[in-house]
Amino acid sequence: MQISGAWRLAARVFLPFAVGYYLSYLFRTINALIASHLSSDARLGAADLGLLTSVYFLVFAAAQIPVGVLLDRFGPRRVQSPLLLLAAVGAGVFAVSTGFLSLLIARAMIGLGVAAALTAGLKSIILWFPRERVALLNGYMVMLGSLGAVTATTPVEHLLAWMGWRQLFEILAAATGATAILIYVVVPERRIVPSIASTPATLGSVFRDRRFWRIAPLSATCIGSAWSLQGLWASPWLIDVEGLDRESLVGHLFTMSIVLSCGAWLFGTTVHHIRRRGLGAETVLATVAVLFMAAESTLILRAPLPSILPWSVVAIAGTATVVSFAVIADYFPTELAGRANGALNVLHFGWAFLAQCATGLILEQWSANDGHRPLQAYQVAFGLNVALQIAALVWFALPGRRSITPWMSSILFSKPADDSCAVEPVGLYEDLVILLPVHDDAEW
Prior knowledge:
Blueprint: H1 2-42, H2 46-74, H3 76-96, H4 100-113, H5 117-128, H6 134-145, H7 147-151, H8 154-162, H9 165-186, E1 191-193, H10 203-207, H11 210-240, H12 246-276, H13 282-300, H14 308-317, H15 321-331, H16 337-363, H17 375-397, H18 405-413, H19 427-430, E2 434-436
Antiparallel strand pairs: 1-2
């Protein structure tokens, strides 16, 4: 009976949100495959293409904190469904757009519409499943969602062989609208009553927490850069630097997407097991960051290795959100989960926007020869990313960071953090959160 109930819960709660995240990942990465079509049809340069693709990240990032508040207040079902309807409209507009401005607006609508795709899924996992299973289920969520990146390679390439990219986006618009309706109809409601504790469930509680500011820069610079590279700039690199033809390019992107999906499962399983042994997930995050920087350096220095190896590491780094959100789940109580995840996602997607847009601007400083930019242009752009990631890693390991983070918080909130603002250990909340089907009036 319990097994049957678990499968029913997975079908009604987990899978609908996984489908929404799948579509989000597909929209995020599909421009890497259709970049040449967009460039020729709309006459876009590298900077225009970078801005068009990265505006998704900009709007996504700007929406994360409001979305987190809404998720904590109204629940994932009532937030995710209308937003996906907006994404469906955006995909429809993208399909019929002919100029840069209309494409930009449509892409921004898509970014806003899928802004809750991951955090809504994570919130539903926290609400409906045991806490000890959160990291494992987060891994499954990201793994299934990242199949969208797999779809945006070889499968989409086959579709483009007998239909245009505009028809493809019409199909995506219909699928996104259907998913919005599915979530609204199938997913049940579950509300929480805020715990009775000394710390109110506010956004300031997240930003004043020193632990948040310890991991946030490292998580953002690595994960955001990985998304930027796989979502757009891997394709031009493989063409301009590696000299791959279209078939080989699609094969590389397909392999990266498969590795991406497997990496999400691997991280979820790893964090699940190390937690059972009483270890923290921060070490896993730092290890992934070091491997990611090593892979980028291998590409920059043109080490004599098959390029698919470092690019696979780049793909895996993009799924380290599983690790980051597992850390966040340990830091904050259930009624703050939406805000905390949203706050971290602001930095993830904000950095992805900056990295993707800045890379395009840097590449534009070198003239293209027969449509290809030189290796030096990519080395400068990628090298800047690595330098900033190293700085974030140093901050993560800096012994004196505890004396610096309160100063950062005082600037953010225009007042110094005092004892009344200190975040209590997570353990104080765990036994006090009560799940009930009632309205949640949690304070922002």
